[in-house]
Design goal:
Layout lengths: L1 H12 L4 E5 L5 E4 L2 E4 L8 H9 L4 H10 L1 E8 L3 E10 L2 E9 L13 H6 L5 E6 L6 H15 L3 E6 L12 E6 L7 H8 L6 E4 L5 H12 L3 E6 L4 H10 L6 H11 E11 L6 E9 L2 H8 L6 H6 L9 H10 L5 H7 L7
Parallel strand pairs: 7-11, 7-12, 8-9, 8-10, 10-11
Antiparallel strand pairs: 1-2, 1-6, 2-3, 4-5, 5-6, 12-13
């Protein structure tokens, strides 16, 4: 571990979001979205990378890595930080990406999240999806939403994650966090078990496959509030992604299910601030009202953006509106605004 300690401390000092340890390259940090090599560090040879990375694995993890050739796990270094780690084999040797995770779960207010996120935490049941590309803060947003429930509502919360990232402490709720590979064998098995564990709220790290999506919909239909993530671009596209995961002969049934159980979709992205000193969130927000439910049921999801545009009084907003507001408030440059407005809204 000592071999990486200096790099870890440098990353926390500069508030990096990720650390890249790659055979054939200098150790590199991602700071405010930019890749910054550690200049004084030599390029990592295959032997150096192995010494750095195998040092952080337990004997059991080394065996698993030899068999799988890639692996996710969490790493908690008490005096430095907590990390989500993916280690893998590439052409030149072994490499890893470390995502820094704050020890403190920040509140929705501390993150300057729109009040609509707080509204979603008060829903009695249904499916709430946070979507966006890797590195846009989906996990941080979900953690803040779970934290909001934990401190304001007496609920039983079960999280199913791969790996566990933010660590929650019980407040007025009871939170039980399960890590795939350590506390359960698969997302599907854990989700199936969760339905018999009397939860009020289920956090599902990611809806990765058909079976997980099916079970998330079932959990939402049976009275649970389910939070999950997807890697999609846009609220309407998230609906389509779920439906398209099913065979054609099941899609009409899924549309009906989704129109009844889906409660909200938040599409988020992080945009570099005008002063280049940080990043700020932009959000598309959709709550499923009667109009949107009807569009999902009738396979007219291409019209969802129009409903979002005309439903601002219900707390909805398009990504175009969010980005435009950031530009008009002076937080982002005109170039960034134009780059981040979705193509469907361009004139």
């Amino acid at each position: 571990m000592a071999k990486l300690d200096k790099i870890f401390r440098t990353a926390t000092q500069y508030q990096a979001s990720d650390i890249y340890i790659a055979t054939g390259a200098k150790p590199t940090l991602r700071i405010n979205g930019d890749m910054v090599p550690i200049a004084e560090h030599p390029e990592l040879t295959k032997k150096m990378a192995e010494e750095y990375l195998l040092d952080i694995l337990s004997t059991d993890q080394k065996k698993r890595f030899e068999q799988s050739l890639d692996m996710d796990f969490s790493l908690d270094i008490e005096t430095i930080a907590r990390f989500r780690v993916n280690i893998f084999v590439q052409r030149k040797g072994i490499s890893a990406v470390f995502r820094l995770i704050s020890e403190k779960v920040r509140t929705l207010d501390e993150l300057n999240m729109p009040t609509q996120f707080k509204k979603a935490t008060t829903l009695p049941n249904g499916l709430v999806i946070i979507t966006g590309p890797t590195g846009c803060g989906k996990t941080t947003s979900l953690a803040a939403m779970i934290h909001e429930i934990n401190r304001t509502q007496k609920k039983h919360i079960i999280t199913i994650e791969d790996p566990v990232e933010y660590v929650h402490k019980n407040d007025v709720s009871i939170i039980q966090q399960r890590e795939v590979g350590i506390h359960t064998h698969t997302f599907q098995k854990a989700l199936r078990s969760a339905l018999r564990e009397a939860p009020d709220v289920i956090l599902l790290g990611e809806m990765r496959d058909l079976e997980t999506i099916q079970m998330a919909l079932t959990a939402a239909e049976t009275g649970h509030l389910v939070f999950a993530t997807l890697h999609t671009r846009g609220c309407a596209n998230s609906v389509n992604r779920i439906i398209d995961a099913f065979p054609p002969e099941q899609q009409n049934q899924v549309r009906a299910q989704l129109s009844e159980s889906l409660r909200a979709v938040f599409w988020q992205k992080l945009i570099k601030t005008k002063d280049n000193k940080g990043r700020v969130g932009a959000y598309e927000i959709m709550f499923v009202n009667n109009a949107i439910g009807n569009l999902i049921r009738k396979s007219n999801t291409h019209q969802i953006n129009s409903v979002i545009e005309t439903s601002t009084k219900e707390g909805m907003q398009t990504m175009k509106k969010s980005v435009t507001d950031l530009f008009q408030s002076g937080l982002i440059s005109e170039e960034s605004a134009l780059t981040n407005i979705p193509k469907e809204f361009e004139q």
